[in-house]
Design brief:
Length: 462
């Protein structure tokens, strides 16, 4: 029997999401919002690696050569880059092998954002746009006559004005899954990826099937079992860019929850609203809030930006309860996007958080003097650091210049990875996808890996 997460966390989460789903029946992901218990599963987290997007995806795509029947690639941004070239190279090799074995491999390539023109003029229908094979070259893909071993469908979905489909994941034969933080793009950012097997792959396929398969991109179900997963020596010898860090995780079966978050067209701006009002009650949003609200010892958060009012309030509440908080973010990252989607920027929100935290400390100190017997807990410690790249040299030309990793670890036991940032866009308008692992071993290994990867790359402001 597969292990399950703690009921003290899952029961209130299931109850709240299910109750609020009645108010959001038009959600594109209503299947999981009305039945969130179906998202509770297990997995075997195999590996975790850190590096630039190109390094991480080079590692991931080399493992995608194992695909025998089916490959699903979902990303948010699709841009001219080394990673895009690596995807094209992978497709050529898979096609050649399929032809040699007299078979077809089903491939689905899904993305949301390609250019400003695409977002302005593409249909906002959730059926999206299917790209004809005659246009593949304009996407940086091989010509269709070079991919005759594949049944390839290329699709994009974007809903104006701000709703990008932000998830990033790769699924190989519905048996091997990857969830990277990076896009298929050119930025040299500090990224991470978790590799996993087990029942989580079924949940990922269900998510893909409900949202991405519509409009002509469907796949055969169930998948016909493959008789072999061997890859030829010619393919395994493909050069791979080594990531900064690459660790093997615990081989044990781990309680896991897939955490989708549906997109919302209305950004729901209210200049004087309470920080916790009108939060879209998605599985991801609710889980993160309840996780932070239930923290007892410590919280570690690494996020590209920090502009989500609900997340910031939950962090401050945790500090007031005596929970220690360690936060790593980036400065001067996607400033225009932050202003448009949140009306603020990370640096200003960090400044406000530090001021509010200092008031908590001052209030506690004053109350301790006036009432020595007061039982009010001392506020937890707050450490906030901005990612700073090490000096770039000819020996290390691929130094990540910003942090784009999305990671939350609570009480050294629950780990959340995925596409969701602690910013307003991720909490209110974008579609997101996360995964939660309930394992002290996984939490320890990932935290150690990240700490080593960040050594000499963080400038602390408190």
């Amino acid at each position: 029997m597969a292990p399950t997460p703690s009921q003290s966390i899952t029961e209130p989460w299931v109850k709240y999401v299910k109750a609020r789903s009645r108010d959001h029946t038009s959600s594109s992901l209503s299947y999981c919002e009305q039945n969130p218990q179906t998202l509770i599963t297990s997995s075997q987290p195999d590996s975790f690696y850190l590096g630039t997007g190109a390094q991480v995806l080079s590692k991931v795509l080399s493992k995608c050569l194992r695909a025998q029947k089916e490959l699903i690639i979902v990303t948010c941004f699709w841009a001219n880059s080394q990673s895009q070239d690596d995807v094209a190279s992978l497709l050529l090799k898979l096609s050649s092998r399929a032809i040699a074995q007299n078979r077809k491999i089903q491939v689905r390539l899904c993305f949301s954002s390609r250019s400003i023109a695409q977002k302005l003029f593409q249909t906002s229908s959730l059926d999206g746009k299917i790209y004809p094979s005659s246009s593949w070259a304009s996407l940086g893909l091989p010509a269709p006559e070079k991919l005759e071993g594949l049944e390839l469908v290329v699709k994009s979905v974007f809903v104006r004005p701000f709703s990008v489909m932000h998830p990033k994941f790769i699924l190989v034969d519905r048996q091997l899954a990857f969830m990277p933080s990076c896009n298929v793009s050119w930025e040299k950012w500090f990224e991470g990826c978790v590799e996993m097997r087990g029942e989580i792959c079924e949940k990922l396929f269900d998510f893909w099937q409900v949202f991405w398969s519509r409009g002509g991109a469907s796949l055969p179900s169930p998948l016909i079992e493959s008789t072999s997963t061997e890859v030829s020596d010619a393919l395994t010898s493909t050069p791979v860019m080594l990531p900064l860090k690459d660790i093997t995780l615990s081989p044990e079966l781990t309680p896991t929850i897939l955490l989708p978050s549906s997109h919302h067209i209305n950004p729901d701006f209210h200049p004087f609203m309470s920080p916790k009002s009108h939060i879209p009650p998605t599985p991801l949003n609710v889980f993160l809030l309840q996780l932070l609200d239930g923290a007892k010892l410590n919280i570690y958060i690494q996020t590209p930006n920090l502009t989500s009012g609900p997340a910031i309030s939950a962090i401050l509440d945790a500090l007031q309860r005596g929970v220690h908080v360690h936060l790593v973010t980036s400065s001067r990252l996607m400033i225009v996007e932050q202003l448009v989607t949140a009306g603020t920027i990370t640096e200003f929100e960090v400044w406000k958080l530090r001021r509010r935290y200092q008031k908590l400390v001052n209030l506690h100190n004053c109350s301790s003097i006036s009432d020595p017997e007061s039982q009010r807990p001392r506020p937890g410690t707050l450490h906030i650091g901005y990612y700073r790249p090490r000096q770039i040299s000819k020996d290390f030309p691929d130094e990540p210049v910003k942090s784009h990793l999305k990671l939350t670890i609570v009480d050294e036991e629950v780990v959340v990875l995925g596409s969701g940032n602690m910013d307003r866009a991720s909490w209110y308008t974008s579609q997101e996808l996360g995964v939660a692992f309930f394992s002290r071993g996984v939490a320890r290994d990932i935290k150690t890996c990240v700490e080593e990867g960040l050594e000499g790359r963080v400038a602390y402001v408190c």
